[in-house]
Amino acid sequence: MSDIPTDLDWIRAAPEDVKGPGPWIEIAFGEGDDGEAPVYLRETSDPDTVVTTNRRKWDAFVLGVQAGEFDHFVEGVDLEGDPTT
After folding, report:
1. Counting beta carbons within 10 angstroms of the beta carbon of residue 13, is it exposed (0 to 12), middle (13 to 18) or buried (19 or more)?
2. Quick one: which of 17, 57, 58, 64 could link to 39 by a disulfide (CB 3.0–4.6 Å)?
3. Which residues are registered as beta bridge partners of 70?
4. Quick one: which of 21, 23, 17 has its CA closest to 85?
């Protein structure tokens, strides 16, 4: 049995003006406000598969994205045809 709460408020990580089914990443924050509070991630095309981390790790990831620490993962990626570009 899953420990994932059924009443989570999933937030789609996509520009608001983009239409269509994605697939998109969705995030939901669990109860609590400390560093160990759960954070859930899933893909819209497979909503039954959920990855769980905690708020401390999620915040570190977001800061890394903002700092450009992961930019090398998209170098050379062809974004042609991507509806967000």
Report:
1. exposed
2. 58
3. none
4. 17
CB atoms near residue 52 (< 10 Å): 12
Q: What is the pLDDT of residues 3-55, one digit of tens each?
A: 899 999 999 988 888 877 788 999 999 999 899 999 999 999 999 999 999 99
State if pTM tops 0.90: no
Q: What is d(CA 58, CA 33) in angstroms, rounded to the nearest whole number?
A: 13
**Which of the four pLDDT bands, split at 50, 70 and 90, describes residue 1?**
very low
Share of the chain residues as helix, strand and coil, in percent rounded to the nearest 5:
20, 25, 55
Q: What angle do CA 81, 61, 5 make, to 5 degrees?
A: 90
Please state whether beta strands 11-12 and 25-29 pair in parallel, antiparallel, or not at all (unpaired). Answer: antiparallel
